[in-house]
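This part of the workshop introduces the protein records we will be handling. A record pairs a protein's sequence with a compact description of its fold. Comparing a sequence with its tokens is the quickest way to learn the format. To make this concrete, we reproduce a full record directly below:
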Amino acid sequence: MKKIFLLLTLLFSLLQADLFVQGNKTVGVSLGSGSVDYGWPRGSEYYTILGVSGDYFIVDDLSVGLAYRHWFGTPSIDEVTLPVTYYLPLDANMRPYAGLFYRRVFMGSGYDDGDVYGGRAGVTIKVSPRSYLGVGWVQEYWDGCSDRSDCSSGYPEAVFSFSF
């Protein structure tokens, strides 16, 4: 009986652990849509975007990660992102976050690949002892862009992540 009680106590403490502590890992998925204006005569291409990401908390409230997204369309687009995110420890169930990232974009069909730098900010909401929903804003800047009107873009983000 004591062993069962000890095991249940240990499991309960693991389930109640903070999501943003050193050593935790998160896995996230993303699904969305986007468009790219390729100019005349091609016009715009509309895409469905599917991605997966993983983060590791190197210290409490600070994660580094790796993400991959594929844009389904013609030409296809693949992105590899390296993010760093800080979660401000103000509340146990809701935490503001801010981060920076570098992204390498691989364009298909003869288009030039590119580098993107950016930032993101928002808030996470704890939805279970081991998962959270994040909503925020992403602002990105294309490196080496010569057309000032198309060198940056911003968009909302929503992420659901599991921690283990």
About this structure: Strands lie at 25-37, 44-59, 62-72, 77-87, 94-107, 114-128, 131-142, 152-163. The longest helix spans residues 2-15.
